[in-house]
């Protein structure tokens, strides 16, 4: 099903009637820009599609990533990391640190570096989608409080601004 011709509330993100002046869910007034905007956020892709989007846009920070795709990608990365860690640990215990173990350890290390770099760009894209600056990612430098603040920001609905970032396809 196509996302064309749909309009979403700029405050709560719920689908509303195209051209509506107010949201039927939260009552927020819709801006003039919103009335002409179609397809507020990129399509919700699910687990596999979100992981593909994560790896396709690994180094891209000037776009947006909607809330559903962000959390699906995080779940997929967690599952992949769990499996890789299990395999490396399993073979490490069986092989008494053979060449296979060191190969798997190297593979896992490369994977985690790629995930760290992609995680930064994905977080910045998620912040852009909430209407915030990507520089807020530096809140991670504040122990505990920064992490909590970013999780709260990542959970915010998408906000489309006229001068905002483009939508990742």
TrEMBL record:
Domain Zinc-ribbon: 8-29
Key words of the record: Membrane, Transmembrane, Transmembrane helix
Source species, domain of life: Bacteria
Transmembrane intervals: 71-94, 100-122, 134-154
A GO CC term assigned to this protein in UniProt: plasma membrane
Xref: PANTHER family: INNER MEMBRANE PROTEIN YHAH-RELATED, INNER MEMBRANE PROTEIN-RELATED-RELATED
Protein name: DUF805 domain-containing protein
Species the sequence originates in: Pediococcus parvulus
